[in-house]
Every structure is written in C-alpha cells, then in structure tokens.
Amino acid sequence: MPNTDYPSLGEISAIQTAFEAAGYICTTRIATVVKLAAALEKPVLIEGPPGVGKTELAKTCAKVVNRPLVRLQCYEGLDESKALYEWKYGKQLLYTQLLKEQLGEILDGAKGLSESMNRLHQFGDVFYSEAFLEPRPLLKAMETDSGGVLLIDEIDKADFEFESLLLEVLSDFQVSIPELGTISAQSKPLVFLTSNDTRDLSDALKRRCLHLHIPFPSVELEARIVASRVPDLSQSLTDQLVRFVHAIRSLDLKKAPAISETIDWAKSLVLLHANNLDGSLVLDTLNVLLKYEEDIKIAEAQLPKLMATTTA
Amino acid sequence: MRNPNESVNQQSASSDQLLAFMQYLRGKKIPVSPADTLDAIEAAELLGYSDRALLKNGLAATLAKSSHELATFERAFDEYFQLAASTSAAKALADDEGTQPTPDPGVSPSHENMLPENTPDPLEGLRGNALFDSLESQDESALSVAIETAAAEVKVEDISLFTQRGQYVRKMLDALGDEALRAAAIEFEQSDPAAFEAVQALREQLRERVRDRVERAYLIHASAQTEDLLDESLSKLKLGNIDHSQMARFKRLMERMARKLAARHGRRRRRYRRGKLHVGETVRKSVATDGIPFHPKWRKVERKRPQIMAICDVSGSVAAYAKFLLMFIYALQDVLPRTRSFAFSAALGEVSDLFNTLPVEEAIETVNLKYGGATDYGRALNDFSELALAEVNHATTLIILGDARNNQADPRLDLLAEMKARAKQVIWLNPESTRMWGTGDSEMLKVRRHCHIAKECNNLNQLARIIDQLLSERR
C-alpha cells in the first residue's frame, strides 16, 4: 500500500521540480529513491564522498514535505541515552527529596510493613513516567504528530552496537522503553542515514535500508547546482569554474574538492567581482577549494594544464 | 481486445523474471536475502516494468548495499537483461499463453502470410506437428511455451557443470519432440534435398534456441557454484604458486575473508567497553549535594588497542608470502589499527609509511626493490632491536614471516629471546612445511623455542585461521 503521508513525494518528476525549487538539483536516481522511501516506508542509507550533498538531501526533503527535521549527529561513544531517551535523573532525585515529607502522610496509620508496602504500590511507578522522560532525537522523531524527517548523520562514526540499537527504530519505527513499554510512531517519519564509508556497516542495518550512492556529479549537473546556489555568477564563469574543479578532481589529491567547496569557491568569486577565471585569481583563491597544503602545491604545479581545460 | 487478466499475468511473469535475476545476482556475489527480494518486487511493482532506467535505479536502491556492490549490480543488470532481452518478451508471452491454453487464432495465419512461398509440398506431411508448425510460422509465443515446458520437464535448472550443456540440450530437444523432425529429415535426405534443407534449417534454429536456454540456466543456476569451487581451491593453493591470472580473483577472495574477520572481531572489541558506576568518585561528588548522588560517575574501561608489528623477510624465497601477509593485515586496518611493518633481507627498515601512503600492491613492489637480497636474520633482528625494540610492550604482537634459513650465519637468537620477553606474543610464520624445518641451513627448530607460536603458513586458509586466532585472543 503506498504511503499517503507525503503526497508531494508521489511522482518522480514532481519530486525533481520540488527539490529544485528548494535549491537541490537531484538526478532521477535520487528522486527514485526518495519516492521509494516514501512509498515503501523504508529508511534511506546515503553513501558517497564528503560534500556531495548527502546531508543536504535530507534537509531539502524536510523543506519539501514541510515537516520538522530531527537530526542526530553520530560520533564514537554515542549511546542510547544520547540517541533514544534518558531518565531525568536529577528531576527524579529532586522530587524524591521534596516528596520525602509526603511519605509520612501516606504511610500514616498503616500497620506493619506489608500494609505500608501495599499503600506505596497504589501509586504505581510515578518516577518512571513520561514526565521524567527526556526524549532524545530518535524518540522525538517517533513522537512528531504528522511525521517528519529524521536525519541520522555519519552513522559510520558511531559504534557497532549503536547500529543494533537503530534496528528497532528503522524497521518498526518504534522505541522500547523497559519501564514504559513500546512507543511507536503515530505517523512514520522519513529516515535518512548518511555514511562516509569509513567502515563497513552491518548487514542487518543495510538490509533494512534503501541504498543510495551519490558520486561526484557530472560537469553539466554540477554547473546546474552551482547556478542554482550562486545565481549571481555569470553563466560562462560557472562553466569555467566547474570544468576547472573537474580537472582538479582528476589529480591525485589527499582530498578532492566536493560540491560544497565548488559552491564556496563560486561564492568567493562573486565577492571578488571576478568575471573571468585567470591564473592569478585561481592561485589566490585555491585555498577555498583545496584544504591541504600539499594538494595546493600539486594543483599549482599543474595550473597551466588545468587552466587549459576551462576554455574547452 | 486483451483480456483484463493480462496485466496481472504480465506482472507475475515479470516478477518471475525478477526472481531469476536475483538468483543471477547471488551468482555475482551480491547477497540477496528473501527480504531484499520482497522489497525489490514491491519497488518494481511501484515503479512499473516499462521504464528500464527507472527499474534499474529502483532495484539498485533495494538490492545493491554498497558502492562496490552497486558497480557489480549495474553490470549484472545490463548483462542479464541483455541476455534475457531477446527472450524476455517471449517468456512473458509464454507465461501469458500458459494461462490461456487456447492460442489466439489470429496470430499464426498472419505470420504464415508473411512467409515466402518457397516451401514445397513435401513438407505438407509434417504440418499438424505442433513443433514444426510453430517453427515454420516463427510463432514466438508457442515456441517459448514449448521450450519452457521442456525446460521444466528436464529440470534444466539442475545443471551444475559447464560441460553438461550438450547433454541438457539433447534432453530438451527430445522433450520437445525433435525426434519426428529428425525422422522426416532422414527421409527427405534421399528423396527431396530442398525439403531436407528446409527442415534442417528449422531444426538448427530450434537447437540454437535450446542452447541459449540451457546456457542461460547455467549462468543463472550453476555459475555461482562453479565460482565457489574456484574460490575454495584457490584458498588452499600455496601462496607462492598463485600466478598473475588468478590475482584479481584472489584479491577479491582475500578482501572478502578480511571483511568477514573484521566484522566478527570488530564487534567483540566494543563489547568490553561499557562502564560501571565509579562508587568512590560518585560519593565524592555527592558531598556537594548533601550526600545525594546527583552526579553519578562512571568507571571507564580502557580500550586496549593491540598493536601488531609485522617483520617480513622479502628475499626471493619468501617474498610472495610476505606480500600476501601484508596485504591481509592491511585489509584488516579496521580491527588492527596502528599496524607497523618492517621488511628485511639483509638490512631491515620500517615500511609502514609506504603502506599508509601507497596502495598495498605498489607498496609491496617498492619494498621488494628496496630491501630485497640475501637473507641475514642476525642483522635484521639487530636492526629491529635498534629501531623499535623500545616500543615493543605487553600489548604488542610480533609477527615474523620467514623461512629461518640463514645461510649458516648466526641468527642472533638472543635478540629474539629478548623480543619474546618484552612482547605479548611472538608469532613466527614459516611458509615451509613443518617437515622441512631444521633441514639444511634452516634454524627453525631453534627459532621456535623463542616464539610463542610457530606455524606453517603457506595458503590463504592457514593465514586467515592464524589471524582469526590472533584477534580472538586479545582482549
């Protein structure tokens, strides 16, 4: 049964137009996966080199469906108390201290230990109720009323055991809290996971996800992306710039410039009122594009060759 | 004019074909689970089967789980549907026909009209034979039905070896009723050469189709088994005997083994990381809050990172083994961080940097060039002591790979003893079989006394087993 929670994600061409309006140019492959994710209610695992717009895709998607974005940034040592929920330990403690006096009143007149216990039991687990529950991103995403977009960023940075924790959330859209029971999502959120491929993810996790690999874009696509993000840059300069970046990517670099760097570079060219890409301008601004000194040296050495490609 | 069930039929036909495609993918070493299959079918039904690029994208999203699988998937998709393209339409039709036993009478006459009128009368005797009729009229759907039925009858999917093709082609032809045509051909051979030619041409066509069908069955069902067989024999082959042509397959196999080990041991390391309540610290902190422990403190378990130092003999006799050991260890970077490697034949030097900056294979070439030559264990161990012995501690595992043949020179076992005293483990891997140890100039029997483990190691299985042990022991 196709999911009708996200009507704007029903048609591939409609997705492309809507995303483009939100400033994200997506290929048919990306649009297809987004459509499938909405229809099959499956999380999307996005892989690809840094800076190709993995995180941006999730953000744009939230914009397009006009729902809140809940983001969970992963890091080594991330555990359930940071990702799922936590008991408000301080509040619990404070309340027990404050209610100490009440205890006397409740137990007033009770005979013997068992009667006191029975009276206490009548109050149930007051300290383990939702009032003392601190929802963390995953639980928050389950609790949003009309669905939303959950972004689990850089899942490869989290520990292996955290992945297992995610499985329940990803396949059933529910969170089990031993003291309370199971909280399931009223309306299933769209889930995006991003990974920079620094390690292999578990098969169990992969199995639950649709898989999307975003590579570096083609020249035409990147030119379109730059044009939509930096509209002030002239058409010809955009073309030159993109071709230059593509030539740079073919060099053997420590870190190849990503789309985000291309956009940054385009923005700095606008700030500098450049209207043509020449050697000295490139030399001055190369540090926007390349983040390592050795890479800049390599590119400088190859500069004439790289410049030649821009006029093609 | 088409019946309303048609689209449903087509869909089930297509999903049958999808299932066959999954089988094909498994053969290409893309693991497709039953759950993946369901997802893929659901995705395909949602996207429709008409737009091939769209279908490919959708299936890729559900079936290819990593970027290298994606590349394999794309190749497999193109291969498979090219393979099946010519017959896929026919097969869909065949399944259609299969559900409607009465064939559409409108089809065959129109085809017959298109036939050139050079078929002479003698063939009249054969008309009425279903097989002959469908061959003569090129009735794709009827032929496909017949071929698929025959395929099911002889259980063509049981094919397991490439050499069985002929046998299965024969069986299928028999099941199709080629017998009658052959008898007719023999008859015509003497009496009517033209008719003979015509019948033979049709039979050749039929054989062609059947062969296609059998080969496809082989590709889909058996090539996977054959691949497994090849992998298995390769992992038992002496590493020194692996030649260039097998390198690509071998590398794949090794990476797969390394991934498996990494997955298994990566998990274990993390299980010992959970903290416990640090009572003392918590009580101390609670003093500020009147003894109420507002800020619980947790004991941290320090993660012991094991360190491996691999010392490899790269002289001619052992170089190949050193190459594989290093490749394997570096494929395990995930679970074996901070690996340092040293290479020697006479002099010894650290080569870790090479491995960190260059692709493994290139690094190995460079190492061979730089340190190759006649072996001198004494000097190598001495060099190592000066270079890195100070950094060997109780967390260090030393792996030494060499044949311990020292050309009658002093192997400096005193240094090895010192290394054993300092390190957590000293493992000596010898590519020679145990029987050869101690013969000629081999110092192996003396050497093994100064090692925690001394093992024969000359194929991938042994190598994987040793690394597996190594990873299991450390905590």
Short structural description:
With 312 residues, chain A is α/β, with parallel strands linked by helices. Chain A is built from 16 helices and nine strands. In chain B, β4, α17 (413-422) and β5 (425-430) form a beta-alpha-beta unit.
What do you see in this structure?
The complex is a heterodimer of chains A (about 300) and B (about 475). Chain A has about 300 residues and is of the alpha/beta class. Chain A has three domains: about 150 residues, Rossmann fold, CATH 3.40.50.300; about 45 residues, no CATH class; about 90 residues. In chain A, about 50% of the residues lie in helices and about 10% in strands. Chain A is built from 16 helices and nine strands. Chain A is elongated, with a radius of gyration of 26 Å. The two termini of chain A are about 50 Å apart. With about 475 residues, chain B is of the alpha/beta class. Chain B has three domains: about 200 residues, no CATH class; about 180 residues, Rossmann fold, CATH 3.40.50.410; about 30 residues, no CATH class. A six-stranded mixed sheet of chain B has the order 3-2-1-4-5-6, with helices on both faces. In chain B, α13 runs antiparallel to α15 and α13 crosses α19. At the A-B interface, α2, α5, α10 and β9 of A face α2, α3 and α11 of B.
Question: How is the secondary structure organized here?
Answer:
The complex is a heterodimer of chains A (312) and B (475).
Chain A: H1 12-21, H2 28-40, E1 44-47, H3 54-65, E2 69-73, H4 80-83, E3 85-87, H5 89-98, H6 100-107, H7 112-121, E4 133-135, H8 137-143, E5 149-153, H9 160-172, E6 174-177, E7 181-184, E8 190-195, H10 203-208, E9 210-213, H11 219-229, H12 235-249, H13 259-271, H14 279-289, H15 293-301, H16 303-310
Parallel strand pairs in A: 1-8, 1-9, 2-5, 5-8
Antiparallel strand pairs in A: 3-4, 6-7
Helix pairs in contact in A: 1-2, 11-12, 11-13, 12-16, 13-14
Chain B: H1 6-27, H2 34-47, H3 52-63, H4 67-99, H5 107-114, H6 130-136, H7 140-153, H8 165-176, H9 178-191, H10 193-236, H11 244-271, H12 279-286, E1 307-313, H13 319-331, E2 340-344, E3 348-350, H14 352-357, H15 360-371, H16 377-388, E4 396-401, H17 413-422, E5 425-430, H18 444-448, E6 453-456, H19 460-473
Parallel strand pairs in B: 1-2, 1-4, 4-5, 5-6
Antiparallel strand pairs in B: 2-3
Helix pairs in contact in B: 1-2, 1-4, 1-10, 2-3, 4-7, 7-8, 8-10, 9-10, 11-19, 13-15, 13-19, 16-17
